[in-house]
UniProtKB/TrEMBL annotation:
CDD domains: GATase1_2 (cd01745). InterPro entries: Class_I_gatase-like (IPR029062), Peptidase_C26 (IPR011697), PuuD-like (IPR044668). Involved in the breakdown of putrescine via hydrolysis of the gamma-glutamyl linkage of gamma-glutamyl-gamma-aminobutyrate. This is gamma-glutamyl-gamma-aminobutyrate hydrolase. GO terms for molecular function: gamma-glutamyl-gamma-aminobutyrate hydrolase activity. It comes from Oceanimonas baumannii. NCBIfam families: PRK11366.1. Belongs to the peptidase C26 family. Its EC number is 3.5.1.94. Keywords: Hydrolase. Signal peptide: none annotated.
Amino acid sequence: MVHIFNKPWVGIILCEQQLGPHRGLTVQQKYLDAIVAAGAVPVPLVHQLGQDEESLAAMLSRLDGILLTGSYSNMEPHHYGESGDEAHTDRGRDNLSLQLIAAAQRMKLPLLGICRGFQEMVVASGGSLYRQLHETGLFAEHRENKDLPLAQQYAPAHSIQPAAGGLLAQLAGEDEHRVNSLHMQGAKSTGPGVRVEATAPDGLVEAISLPDHPFALGVQWHPEWQSRDNGLSRALFDGFVIACRDYAGHRNSV
């Protein structure tokens, strides 16, 4: 298959929300902007794909990478062994994201998870989540102040330390970086073999990679915000799209 202008195609998961009297599937513009700016073509992945194995397989055969975006919704807690209800869930997204992660691992399809996408990767790999970080007494405040302008909400909030020799360090170096912080939940545990790629000063896991995969990276912060204006963000998206391009080249040559 020949891609338009040889740009890789990146599937982007959508989120369900109420749009007036109707339910809709949406994605925030900043994610599309980041993918386009890095040199790839964004392709929306509707929740119905998670209900049709044949259609999902057909879509995956055409993609060169997958982006799991952030979201205002949370995963349903039964996915990581907890009971009870959770506010602002998105069952269709849960179902599709877990299938996409499994397929990405099986196919070695490049995968980038951001915020909720990071948490989906944690859960898919056998890990669990803190449902209310600020109630644990274990961590600094990781939520944004929603009363502030967006530029201040997305301003650097704390440092992260990449793990030596990891994928994140290969992309952006082993020095500390400053990142934003706009999340209520976080990684409580990680699954077998998952590599912790970075931590915050309070010890919270901020990035992971999945084992035996050339590029499967999840980050808890939001690199998509003004992605070309930040060196770490550019490195993440450029590295991801390069991996997608390599995947496309290999697939098209066989």
